[in-house]
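Example 3.2
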Amino acid sequence: MATWSEIESEAPELAATARGFFDAFTHKTMATLRRDGSPRISGTEVEFRDGNAWIGSMWQALKARDLQRDPRFAIHSGSADPPGWKGDAKIAGRAIEVTDTERVQQMDEDERSHLFRLDITELALVRLGDPADHLVIESWHEGRGVTTLKRK
């Protein structure tokens, strides 16, 4: 699994475009797995700091409990409505809970909240091509690097 800075080093243009999509909207959508294995969708915010991607959670929130039990996640950036839509980004991987009180406070989190560092296994972008008559899907997968697909 990769840190955000490792992805930036390996695929700088893709990471920069993805970061722009993630930074465009405060609220993102995150998928976790419930105890029975079914998906749960929750709102979240992502912070890029110190070479990593991070999320926080209210104390004992269901998404935090999901991640403690099964750390797999997927997060989708916010999206503008057409015709203003330019694209969006997705990341997936494993969320590692950080319980060090000093680190939690450095991230401006309340000590009665959860802090997770995101180890990323995939990053995907979907955006309009040039000209805007097709979609461009670019992705980075751990161990495979960057691939690009165009779809009409």
